[in-house]
Design brief:
heterotetramer, A: about 375 residues, alpha/beta, two-stranded antiparallel sheet, B: alpha/beta, 5-stranded mixed β-sheet, about 20% strand, binds thiamine diphosphate, binds magnesium ion
Chain lengths: ~375, ~325, ~375, ~325
């Protein structure tokens, strides 16, 4: 036919399960253990309180700037809980809830926030890449890890997380296409929190949704209510399953909202209004999930208070541990470590000169 | 005449140049609505509108590439990359196009483009926010590479960069953004590109620095003066094209040199400065040229960044060594 | 609704007008002057013969490597003829047919091929950017030129051309998105000639078509038979019209085939078979258009022979002119020109040293 | 033992290393089906299959980025960027990730990655196909930067680079690809990274070069020898980490130095070599260090590229000048 529509050849879907009013679509409801549900709720609360505490610590000058995930807990925990322990997780810089779930200790996060490289070391046995600050640059890494997993037949899946703004970068495009061409076992999770610092979606991209970018790579895309933990979990579980069974990547767009600052250097009042924030506060993902739990799972309202105390205590302890580690880690000479597997001669000399200078004895230059 | 921080001084330059030239545009991530993460472009959108002050998508290569297109089609874009550590995303647009369009088209297309990037360590920022890789851009024919040290020269250099018919990479020392205020005249003032300046005269040793390291170098000169050593301090201002007359002349007077930069040591800018001295003033050297630089390690996270950076003590020690030797 | 399809919000279409058998869809047929049609045919033949001659010249060692457009003439001339003289054209490196149509003299192309920078200077008054070798890197330039055109209200449209492989580069993605967000008057012409050097489409991208990548940017996309000059022209004219009236960019995928080598350094037999080439040779765009002209326009078969002679003569003359220019342009000291508007002192010194050395008198170093 | 061109020698290294280590992969644009635009990877796909020898999409940042991911997950990728002039597209992946992953993860993740790029002028290629910006990569802590000059060292260095636990940028001089043949042993041979070599001994002047410029420098040494001047010629082989013991020792013997590279002059690698000499052998210098380099202009299209490049005459003149002065 001379003039006709072109078919995409891939599905692009929307998914929600528990809506804002707490209405549940029973058919779509996943069959998850109560234990897991309770753990996820606990993780959401922990992350929220941890972010709040860190905002305080930052204001007191005890840690530096960081990117809170407040408002995005359902997206992050819904997705990460679909990943197996032996799978890979490739974060950007706002994924504290996910990292904690994967086993990074609270004190390590604090150490990182306080400017210590040691905070970035992944815990023993954990398969997370460290934080990637350059936006989108981690997407190709995920494609490569996935390629290697397929080649070496390890059965691993890779979940990579990034923001709405990140989809504008060339690296997103190249990484997604690389994964798609090679049908690498990769889950591309876009946390659409509506802003890239001050830039809203409509100034960020020509498309109305992010999920439709999946069409570019010929991969399935699913757009999901990112404040609905169960919906995100279902979408992620499907994507993980697809990846694991050899059918390649999926693009997930989780529609959510950053309720707090971009980082502590940011002032949202310069680019968005209170009303908008208020509307989204009403959709708070923790509150929605708590109500669901209280309704459906044998969890009493009372349990929540106990949880708050427990969480506060864990955070206190973590800060103490972090402070202790910081005291031990004073020595800046460690900056000469880990540049190469073996320190080359000229670097050894620079290190020696640095040490000598600190003894005030040495020459420089 | 007002007392301004470097941020305010840069902002003044942008305001005045936009008002003077309708062809001038400002673009970058978050430069319009919020006035940039450091607020250097604050107020521009309100005054000149969102067609001339543009929040772009988050994509550095296209920010530089689109700016080049704007420049070719009659505009004078000043684009901001949020930190120089993200400038590598646009390296190919700078190296392969901005630097070459005049040359490639045999002068038919000019690229009067300024690419602003905050650079350098010392503000307790995250990874990639403390880079000082001016050597990359200085090594590319067709680009100019400028680094101011204080509010007043920052304003004057930015105005010159905007009016320059060629692409200028303009590094702004974050550590000096709000570190001090200086008198900056209300009326127009320019500092020519390609000219360094002597900021302190002295006969005993020549200290060469730029950007955020200038303040530390001046501090070192004060310390040396306490012992009766008079250092001549030179602020390069433009890294490329490098003004080698001022410092080679100084070396002929002092015979002793220390070059200071926070960039990594190996293959850093000091190599070029030294070679120009070798080529023009070798016979006047009384001791080996010395350098005080960042180390050849990735800039550590902020708990250790001060240890990475040259400080006045290291500069003083290097100067003393240069003076002791003969 | 909890689970449903996502709408793209933009049309993605296929278009063909004159098919391989010469069947014409009368309804879609554009109303073009006979004069223009004849000129386009002439331009196709000129380009084809020019490429063939250059292949000879290259084999004789008289010019260097270049990228022939053999097989892609309908795509290129169909598209470029939809652009006004005051519009901008942003090529990559395989667009000789388009450049010639826009007024670049044959001798300038030859000068470029022979390694002289002077061959890249656009003719007076012409609004073409010079050849861009780094794949896709010119796409953001087009977005910027378009932005400036809109801002300055010049009424100009920008047509940027690139290949199928080019769509994998980050710069394509970033440039297209930039143009889309700002509704810049840009026409994105992808010449899908099936290969990026040796790499076929299915190893290049996850998607089945290139046109569907338009969805990523929320812009209309049209896939067109790239060997059907009229179809390409209609698609391009619609896109130019859309751009000019302020409705932003369009992505055109012209499906064609590179019948010859990638560049003269390439040997297609290492990656594709004779049969495939044969199948495409049967779809030769010039032959298809010639038949259409003879059928529909008052052009006799005989006219074609005269055309061949005329074209051969023009090419002979151009080579003579190019040789003459080369003889005049011997001086390598010109390499010091046009680096900056004004030559800085150190560069002046390097130039002086270069000149002095050639007189054997000077020092170096 | 066979007489091989550099292309064949590199191909031998790739074949042997892939056979020896299942974890090794080769990837890049057109490397598999056709064996690369220069045929360096020819035959690998047939022998090791298209899972280990991969034709990638045309996208340099993802080639390097995906390679990094493969390296982190147990592979040893050797990727090819078609020309170093397109390496800037991947600059951010190299600077911000490949160079830092070991450091960032405190040693948890290694990146045993080789990024091969043909570099340099002299083969009558198109724009961007004649670049020599090794200084970019040499300035980045965490990267190694290697440039062989002939077939035998090319093979030995590539094997070392592949086995190295850190990322290596491996520049291959196109002009030397097929320029000569050399005996290359069939059995394993490695040339250690970070070690330069004296290729000609002499007492009068030290000539330091690498890559395609080595042949021209040796030619210059022959010309000088005709006049009884004995040049010591040093082939750097590894640009970073730079072996400064060999050349500083040589300078102590000769007192006179010429550094040769085809990279642009300003902010080029000669600056670092010179500074190491200043730091270690200043007092032995009898005349200023000199350099013969590419000019500070974009490499001209090929009709003029030979004029851009250092040649034996320029090197001879510089050596004579160095010898005349005192
Ligand atoms: C390549 C690069 N450019 C710029 C920045 C500065 N920056 C940090 S976060 C950010 C916005 C990212 O937005 P988005 O992808 O939506 O993620 P979010 O922060 O909203 O989670 C920017 C511009 C960066 N880190 N990396
Ligand atoms: C950034 C970059 N990488 C690699 C190359 C080398 N190269 C030149 S053309 C080409 C293939 C381009 O394919 P496509 O986009 O389909 O255009 P075509 O050549 O088929 O017209 C490659 C890889 C280049 N010129 N630029
Ligand atoms: Mg966001
Ligand atoms: Mg193609």
């Amino acid at each position: 036919m001379p003039r006709q529509d072109v078919e995409l050849g891939v599905p692009l879907e929307w998914l929600g399960i528990v809506d804002e009013q707490g209405q549940v679509d029973e058919e779509l409801l996943p069959d998850l253990d109560d234990e897991l549900l309770v753990a996820l709720h606990r993780a959401m609360v922990l992350s929220r309180r941890f972010d709040e505490r860190r905002l305080q610590l930052q204001r007191q000058g005890r840690i530096g700037t960081f990117a809170p995930a407040i408002g995005q807990e359902a997206t992050q925990l819904g997705a990460i809980s679909a990943l197996g322990e032996d799978d890979w997780f490739v974060p950007s810089y706002r994924e504290t809830p996910m990292s904690l779930w994967r086993g990074t200790p609270l004190w390590a996060v604090l150490l990182y926030d306080a400017g210590y490289n040691e905070g970035a070391e992944p815990p023993e046995g954990n398969k997370d890449l460290p934080i990637a600050v350059p936006v989108s640059s981690q997407v190709p890494h995920a494609a490569g890890i996935g390629y290697a997993a397929r080649l070496r037949d390890t059965g691993e899946v890779v979940l990579v997380s990034f923001g709405d703004g990140a989809t504008s970068e060339g690296d997103f495009h190249e990484g997604a296409n690389f994964a798609a061409v090679h049908e690498a076992p990769v889950v591309l999770l876009c946390q659409n929190n509506q802003y890239a610092i001050s830039t809203p979606l409509e100034q960020q991209m020509g498309s109305q949704t992010i999920v439709q970018k999946a069409a570019s790579y010929g991969i399935p895309g699913i757009r999901v209510d990112g404040n609905d933990l169960l919906a995100v979990h279902v979408a992620a579980a499907e994507a993980v399953e697809r990846a694991r069974s050899g059918d390649g990547p999926t693009l997930i767009e989780a529609v959510t909202y950053r309720l707090s600052v971009h980082t502590t250097a940011d002032d949202p009042s310069t680019y968005r209004d209170e009303q908008e924030e208020e509307r989204w506060r009403e959709k708070d993902p923790i509150e929605r999930f708590r109500r669901y739990l209280v309704d459906r799972v044998a969890m009493a309202e009372g349990d929540v208070d106990g949880l708050e105390d427990e969480v506060a205590e864990r955070i206190d302890e973590a800060w103490e541990q972090a402070e202790q580690r910081m005291a031990e880690l004073g020595d800046p000479v460690d900056m000469f470590d880990h540049v190469y597997a073996e320190r080359p001669a000229y670097l050894e000399q620079q290190r020696d000169a640095f040490q000598a200078e600190r003894g005030e004895g040495g020459d420089d230059g | 005449m007002a007392e301004l921080t470097m941020i305010q001084a840069l902002n003044l330059a942008l305001h005045q140049e936009m008002a003077a030239d309708d062809a001038m545009l400002v673009l970058g991530e978050d430069v319009a609505q919020t006035g940039g993460v450091f607020r250097v472009t604050q107020g521009l959108k309100d005054e000149f509108g969102s067609e001339r002050v543009i929040d772009t998508p988050l994509a550095e290569a296209s920010i530089v590439g689109a700016s080049l297109g704007m420049a070719v089609n009659g505009c004078r874009p000043v684009c901001e990359l949020q930190f120089s550590g993200f400038g590598y995303f646009a390296m190919h647009q700078l190296e392969s196009h901005a630097a070459r369009m005049r040359w490639r088209s045999r002068g038919r297309y000019e690229v009067p483009l300024v690419v602003r990037m905050p650079y350098g360590a010392g503000v307790k920022a995250l990874e990639h926010h403390s880079e000082s890789k001016e050597a990359f851009f200085a090594h590319v024919p067709g680009l100019k590479m400028v680094i101011p040290s204080g509010p007043r020269v920052a304003r004057g250099l930015l105005v010159s960069a905007i009016r320059d018919p060629d692409p200028v990479v303009f590094f702004e020392p974050k550590a000096a953004y709000r570190a001090c205020k200086e008198e900056v005249p209300d009326e127009e003032e320019t500092v020519p590109l390609g000219t360094s300046r002597i900021v302190r005269e002295g006969d005993d040793v020549t200290l060469i620095a730029y950007g955020a390291m200038l303040a530390r170098t001046l501090q070192a000169a004060e310390q040396l003066a306490e012992d009766g050593i008079e250092a001549e301090v030179i602020d390069l201002l433009t890294i490329s094209p490098l003004d080698d007359s001022t410092f080679t002349a100084s070396v002929r007077k002092t015979g002793r040199v220390v070059i200071v930069h926070e960039a990594h040591r190996s293959f850093g800018p000091a190599g070029e400065v030294a070679f120009r001295i070798l080529e023009r003033s070798f016979w006047w050297l009384e001791s080996p040229i010395r350098r005080v630089t960042g180390y050849d390690v990735t800039v550590p996270f902020f708990a250790r960044e001060q240890a990475y950076l040259p400080d006045a003590d290291r500069i003083v020690r290097a100067a003393r060594t240069a003076l002791r030797e003969e």
